[in-house]
Amino acid sequence: MNAPLQLNTANLRNIASASEVKIPRYSRADVTPGIVHFGVGGFHRAHQAMYLDALMNEGKALDWGIIGMGVMPSDVRMRDALASQDHLYTLSTKAPDGTLDQKIIGSIIDYVFAPDDPTHAVDILAQDAIKIVSLTVTEGGYNIDPATEDFDHANPRIEADRTALQSGNISSLQTFFGLIAAALMARKAADAAPFTIMSCDNIQGNGDLAKRFFLAFAHSVSAELGNWVENNVAFPNSMVDRITPETTDADRNDIKEIGYVDAWPVVSEDFTQWVLEDSFTQGRPAFEEVGVQVVSDVEPYELMKLRLLNASHQGLCYFGHLAGHHMVHDVMADSRFQDFLLAYMEREATPTLKPLPGVDVDAYRHQLIARFGNAAVKDTVPRLCAESSDRIPKWLLPVVRENLTAGRDVTLSAAIVASWARYAEGTDEQGNPIKVVDRLSERIQENAATNRTDILSFIRDRGIFGDLIDAAPFTKAYADTLTSLHEQGAEATLDSLLSQVTV
């Protein structure tokens, strides 16, 4: 048996001839940079980079190649993996019926680890060819002060970057805020047009948040810079959707069995959606030609996705984990979970949505159930349970608050919060330890430690839950579910909840 080929530009044709893997139809030598992207992970490579690759395969957007840029120590691994294979990688999409589509993506043309040479990184960002700087840095990357939800000016790395910019010492910059601000300062000094800052993070109003936080940093450097950014830089909102689990060694072995080696392939579901506000400083690729919905107002689509898909992920993960499930498709094989999520979406989430002309919301709800049950994707329950203190307040609690204000029921939303509280106790129903992965893990586990002696202890944390502790309809439903989880377990609790509603 021949040794597997190394994925690189020279071996592309041999890989294509020996397999059904699709390769770029364009010459990558013709691709020039137009975008710098911070946060090159699985989602970016299954989503934005994939859309650009599709355009390039049609002979378009060849001047919109992506330069990846990393600032965290963990980014070194991605830099090295991509550099070893000419920045190519495999995207494997898996449909619920088992259909597999595999293609090699070529839209990323370079990767820069900024701490190696911050001055070089700024030079790349400042060059005229870069028209978009995009972000998938997760909510935790935006330097949010958890107490105030404003920009954390006291972060030592932010303070250091502010001082460096004020003194002109860009060689010591540490954060993407500092690097981007330095490049904008260079553009301003050269009387050149700024780039667009395009957030692709899974945050409602991601462009608005990016604008607010970049302006906060820019104004703290100087009023002149802050005013220039405010008046000249575009921050489009977007809604992004594609389930992309973490790459495993099994995924790498699947590629090796085809006949080549890919250090970091990407696996995703076959569904993808991107709704993008058409607001750009220096133009954009023709994304609409490859399925992107380019619109004037993203918010209705954001709310649909965040309150149906993302909140439903939280609805299944804690109950599922407590019941002993590790894989999402195993959770969804139990019809009670399907019925619970459909009931939550129909009864509590959908009434809080804005009008969506032309969108069949009921069909979307049922499509989500099918997507969650896609066994081929091999999405994990622990992945969905991670960083709950960021997710629940943004995705689920707005549903609770809007329904309370309108006098509507919050039983199922409260039940999801209660399942998080039980999960945060740190053991499942079989007595197995749960590793709570959360930036506030110590705090939320401490809050959950007294659940059995003070049934409302978990939600007394006003920094996370605000005034919901004062809302009797919520606290009663929450306490009833948490008590049931302690006394009867997750599956019996779901049966009890479903007996109270009509799906």
From TrEMBL:
The keyword Cell cycle does not apply. The keyword Ribonucleoprotein does not apply. Keywords: NAD, Oxidoreductase. Its EC number is 1.1.1.17. GO terms for biological process: mannitol metabolic process. It comes from the Bacteria. Belongs to the mannitol dehydrogenase family. This is Mannitol-1-phosphate 5-dehydrogenase. It comes from Corynebacterium crudilactis. The lineage of its organism: Bacteria, Bacillati, Actinomycetota, Actinomycetes, Mycobacteriales.
